[in-house]
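Appendix B: complex inputs.
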Amino acid sequence: EVQLVESGGGLVQPGGSLRLSCAASGFTFSDYWMNWLRQAPGKGLEWVANIKEDGSDKYYLNSVKGRFTISRDNAKNSLYLQMNSLRAEDTAVYYCARTASEYCSTASCCHSVWGKGTTVTVSS
Amino acid sequence: DIQMTQSPSTLSASVGDRVSITCRASQSISSWLAWYQKKPGKAPKLLIYKASSLESGVPSRFSGSGSGTEFTLTISSLQPDDFATYYCQQYNSSPGTFGQGTKVEIK
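Resulting structure:
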């Protein structure tokens, strides 16, 4: 069964850091672009970052550039999101999601497999 | 960024009803539109991609239509498992952006 399981969420003070993880199983992880998306309370879904199959290309939402870093370890079938300088507006449920080429235009993609998410709360 | 607007925000319907949800883009996105179903505590589920292509394993009562700036998700006969929140997403340009969601409630 294809599965993505996020972990690492929690309560953190403004300015703090957190590292999210996503464990993949049931497919060849190294064959796919991977993404982080989030949903703030009462808001819609928002793409945050993505990373190429071999980790050589990475892209970020403007509001997280310089603060968040996406990475992956294909040997461990794992995706990560290092979040620094956290703000109250980063409070959200964070999802990892898989992208395949058949679900992409030349500029962007939709996502065929998602995890259940992990909750990040930034508050003093 | 392209803005996506869904209507209605909430829809009350009964089992067996035909329901439609509309998604409008702030500029043309060709057919690069996806629909997702979201239930509390569960992973979002891709239903439709490229405006009208049914994702594998999704029941045929779900269908999508439209192109350019206006799109529709239709459920031909609402089932108990379909009560959920539905989101559209454009992926014509980066970043891909989502609508605010339509909650389908039991009438």
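Chain B has a mean pLDDT of 96.
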